[in-house]
């Protein structure tokens, strides 16, 4: 990864690991009081189980998302803040939000942010919010364009509820999850990212969803729909999409241009 990459704003995977050890001083986000674990599990059985994306996996996700000054990134179930603070360190997002129900994890995330600031690490504006993912107004609380959820331990009902509520958020552009959403009519899956390292698997997948073809960021669509100068043109209506030559990726839109010789 070269220095011009948007995720190279601060440090490397090695430095990231050092910060993980020095800044995230808890033994892990799974160490929460029994009352907090019971509260989280009451929302979605097993949701208090703690797992996370590893540093190299976070950088891979951020590179795919291509966050810029018009983007706000939100981690749904942000735990002790590793993903959110990584986005704050390594992206050009206008802001970063972490939503978490466990007060203990929120305190660790906020403490980590303070330590990073004290070390002089450049951070995008970041806030951590106490929120119940099953009931909160996601647009009001986060208002993000790009969402991530490490959803492997989330129940199907919670995932479906989040998809339904996110689909009604005017700001939503992309949702990335650590496991596929259950069958639902609210969001479209545009592809998946391989080689994402999690705490439980070294070569996992991340699944990418959008609200509609029209609202999806061109940079994200281009990563999944283009290959060797040929891109799949998403359907404009009920008709099926098609592979077209001359599909061009501009700053503001994806458009089908005439192929050479036509």
From TrEMBL:
The keyword S-adenosyl-L-methionine applies. Its main location: nucleus. Keywords: Chromatin regulator, Methyltransferase, Nucleus, S-adenosyl-L-methionine, Transferase. Its EC number is 2.1.1.360. It is an enzyme of class 2 (transferase). Histone methyltransferase that specifically trimethylates histone H3 to form H3K79me3. This methylation is required for telomere silencing and for the pachytene checkpoint during the meiotic cell cycle by allowing the recruitment of RAD9 to double strand breaks. Nucleosomes are preferred as substrate compared to free histone. In contrast to other lysine histone methyltransferases, it does not contain a SET domain, suggesting the existence of another mechanism for methylation of lysine residues of histones. This is Histone-lysine N-methyltransferase, H3 lysine-79 specific.
């Amino acid at each position: 990864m070269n220095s011009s990459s948007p995720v190279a704003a601060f440090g490397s995977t090695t430095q990231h690991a050092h910060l993980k050890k020095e800044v995230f001083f808890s033994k892990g986000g799974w160490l929460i009081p029994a009352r907090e674990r019971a509260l989280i599990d009451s929302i979605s059985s097993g949701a208090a189980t703690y797992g996370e994306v590893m540093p190299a996996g976070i950088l891979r996700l951020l590179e795919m998302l291509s966050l810029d000054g018009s983007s706000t990134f939100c981690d749904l179930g942000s735990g002790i803040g590793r993903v959110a603070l990584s986005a704050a360190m390594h992206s050009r997002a206008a802001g970063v939000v972490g939503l978490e129900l466990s007060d203990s994890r929120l305190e660790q995330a906020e403490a980590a942010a303070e330590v990073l600031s004290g070390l002089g690490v450049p951070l995008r504006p970041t806030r951590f919010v106490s929120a119940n993912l099953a009931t909160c107004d996601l647009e009001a609380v986060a208002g993000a364009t790009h969402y991530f959820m490490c959803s492997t331990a989330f129940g199907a009902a919670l995932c479906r509820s989040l998809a339904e509520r996110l689909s009604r958020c005017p700001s939503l552009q992309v949702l990335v999850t650590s496991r596929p959403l259950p069958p639902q009519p609210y969001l479209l899956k545009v592809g998946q990212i391989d080689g994402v390292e999690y705490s439980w698997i070294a070569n996992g997948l991340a699944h990418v969803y959008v609200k509609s073809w029209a609202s999806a960021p061109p940079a994200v669509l281009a990563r999944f729909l283009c290959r060797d100068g040929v891109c799949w043109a998403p359907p404009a209506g009920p008709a099926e999409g098609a592979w077209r030559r001359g599909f061009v990726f501009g700053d503001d839109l994806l458009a089908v241009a005439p192929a050479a010789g036509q």
